[in-house]
Amino acid sequence: MAADGSATSSSATNNRRGKSALFLVACGIAGMGPHWLDPGLRLVPATTLAVLLGGFSVHTVLLPALARRSAAGSGAVPGATAGEASPVASMASDQGPATRSPATAPAVDLVVAARDEQAVIGRLVEGIARLRYPAAALRLWVIDDGSSDRTPLVLADLKERHPFLRVLRREPDAGGGKSGALNLALQQLEAPWMLVLDADADLQPDTLERLMPLAEQGGWGAVQLRKAVVNPDANWLTRAQAMEMALDTVVQEGRQRRGGVVELRGNGQLLRRSALEQAGGFNEETVTDDLDLSFRLVLDQQPVAILWDPPVQEEAVLSVAALWRQRQRWAEGGLQRFFDYSPGLLSGRLSGARKLDLAGFFLLQYVLPVMAAADLLGSAITRTPPTIWPLSLVAFSLSGLSILLGCRRSSEGPPMPAMHPVNLLVGILYLGHWFLVIPYTTLRMALRPKRLVWAKTLHIGEGSAPA
Questions:
Q1: CA distance 166 to 73
Q2: What CA–CA distance (Å, rounded) separates 355 from 345?
Q3: 138-159: per-residue pLDDT in tens?
Q4: High-pLDDT (> 90) share of the chain, %
Q5: Do 25 and 442 meet the contact criterion of CB atoms below 8 Å apart?
Q6: Are 124 and 112 in contact, with CB atoms under 8 Å apart?
């Protein structure tokens, strides 16, 4: 897809390696360069960036979060100040469940792309059956994307018992990854709304009752539910991922309130079908359909919102190896969208506030880790102390405070990790994995051709998979 939602040309796709290499070289020069400056000037670049980006982050994320916390403590309803986006997250917290009759409830199609999901697909379907929503307005579409386990048999049994379930089948070599599976379902849909779920998703019974009226009243092109980790107590890694999901939502809420960009997260994303079709559907040339679609919706001037409650529950990965594979895919897709849509992002189609928001996010999420790696290399070559540490210190400190605010906030779904010093330290140190993932992924993108494979996350359910 191009910036306007049309198909990306093959030359643009093939040029991603060159863009990755250019990005890597630029960050390398920025990270290593200060080591050859006068000793009194070596910390000036990083300190300047720390002040600028730290101030931007405080204004964008922490001040809105602190204001919301203060308003919640006093019983006041937090509203948007002049120039802020409509606080749909506050609406969701303050508005009780909205009931609709079958005649007035907006129709919604729930869509799941499933490959080898025998362990969790039954739990998902039974959970959808418990939703309090008019049956005539609800359909569940499951795309069996070339499963080689018992998923087709499980779905056949479920289809006999649940009339709302529709099953589509793709061959293993159909191509397009998860995006291809979702596009297949998109051709069949008629409802004005499409809720994309992962196979391990779990929704509260009143989720659609509350979500659909908010989406229609707000005029949103898409709404992302907060992702809540259902197994935070499995080990330290799942606990850290639960803290990371809370941090992510706090950050996105702040960006929304300041008129910035809200991003989709794949699982629990509600899409207005007309907005999705106008954007060109799901991009089958990307490894992260959600991140790619987020930028195309922004460029189409489609508003995207995020909700704190109700959440969508999902499993966190249990091992470092699984986390490494998952985060490589996220990093590659995240960088790829900036490279693919940079002409549109720099054009007059985006406001100055959104450009500033994206620039700040890009610098902190992608540039900083690569610069930090280059800084360590420059330190080893010149035998001088690292120079990026002021910026890294600010980034980790602000992330820790966001974790603290998110995990201490009232929330539905699984309990948040307790916020004592040990857990907070684990959460902050855990975020350091991005300082390994981003540089490694950038280097790999610069040296190796892109592979369009669906590297799905393994879901294990509550117990062992059926034999």
A1: 45
A2: 7
A3: 999 999 988 888 999 999 999 9
A4: 73
A5: no
A6: yes
Between helix 236-257 and helix 389-407 the angle, nearest 10°, is 90
CA distances from 264 to 143, 278, 318 (A): 20, 17, 23
Please count the CA atoms within 13 angstroms of the CA of 466 that sit on its side-chain side: 13
- Are 124 and 192 a contacting pair, CB within 8 Å? no
| Residue 203 CA, distance from chain mean position | 18
- The H or E element that residue 168 is part of is strand 165-170
Query: What amino acid occupies position 282?
Result: F
Assigned architecture for domain 1-467: Alpha-Beta Complex (3.90)
Q: Residue 310, preceding bond cis, omega within 30 degrees?
A: yes
Closest by CA to 256, choosing from 361, 348, 409, is: 361
Residues 6+ positions from 342 with CB-CB distance below 8 Å: none
Side chain identity at 292, as an amino acid letter?
D
* CA nearest neighbour of 121 among 45, 175, 211, 197: 197
Assess whether pLDDT exceeds 90 at residue 418: yes
pTM: 0.86
d(CA 284, CA 102): 35
The domain ranges of the chain are 1-467
SS3 content of the chain, % helix, strand, coil (to 5): 55, 10, 35
Parallel, antiparallel, or unpaired for β 138-145 and 108-114? parallel
Q: DSSP letters along 321-385, please? A: HHHHHHHHHHHHHHHHHHHHHHHHHTSTTS-HHHHHHHHHHHIIIIIHHHHHHHHHHHHHHHT--
DSSP labels, 54-94: HHHHIIIIIHHHHHHHHHHHHTPPP---TTPPP-HHHHHHH
